[in-house]
Amino acid sequence: MFLREKRPHVGIVVEYNPFHNGHIYQIEQIKKMFPNCKITVAMSYKYSQRGEIIIAPWRVRKKYAKKYGVDKFVKLHTDISAQAAHIFASEAVLKLAKKGINYLVFGSETNDVNLFLKIANLIKNNLDQYNLLIKKYLKQKGNSFPRATNLALSELSGSNITMPNDILGLEYVKTIVNHNLDIIPISILRTIDFHSEETNNQFASASKIRSMLVSGEDISPFTPIPREKMTSKNISDTYKKFQKIVINTQKEKLAKMKMISEGVENLFKKNIHLETYEEFVEACVSKRYTRSRIKRAYLFVLLKKYK
What we know:
The structure is a single chain. By secondary structure, this protein is an alpha/beta fold. The protein has 3 domains: 9-110 and 166-229, Rossmann fold (3-Layer(aba) Sandwich), CATH 3.40.50; 123-157, no CATH class; 235-302, no CATH class. It has helices spanning 21-33, 58-67, 78-81, 85-98, 113-125, 127-139, 145-157, 164-178, 206-214, 239-248, 251-254, 264-271, 277-284, 291-302; strands at residues 9-14, 38-44, 72-76, 103-108, 184-189, 199-200, 203-204. α2 links the parallel β2 (38-44) and β3 (72-76).
């Protein structure tokens, strides 16, 4: 009697905001590596990691991803999907681990998994030193948390991980290492930069496609999802509602909401008189508070999510 070889089970962490040709390319590459594999994606539900409304509904993204080869979907709700990279990545990988994946595939600008494994093990084995370095850099005026962690990482390992997909990739690998997960990480070289405003043959970044959608340009060469399937909702349209919440909520109660800490409630109260979402976010951004941090905090206040 012969034991049947286990079918490879590949996991991917995604937003698909929107699902585009770069994602199709990634799925095709996975199918080449593992012809008989099962693919499970952990996909953000309504809101992105930047605290914005995802431009295609869940069911639409699911339909097109399934058409191009994804088998199963795990929903990442706002408490995970709209978090900083280290929380978003860790929670998503742990959800995929529960589904039994044995490979995790992700896009990467440097495409060097061995470097990520080396750094992840270095941090794990020198965690106290790493945390002390983060605290040291946070105490220095003007350093945001992402900047402090990057400086700490650079001092500890001698490596600079600054590109968006590399940052997420390292966090995925750190989760695998820290939890001793029986998962092999595999990177695929990015076809185009994460926030690139350029297009490359049939490829455009999700960020570029979103801006093309707003300006009324033809997106059909870059995504299989028709324009009419996209949502016209924009996070900036919620600003009046957000203003009411901040104005009518006492500062002490505001401080009890998720993502509100280190005086962000004072910052929000100070700038709430500004007329537009863009003006408000711009006024709140500083060396200490990144744009993404402010936008995520905005979202959690808008949704009235308490700690």
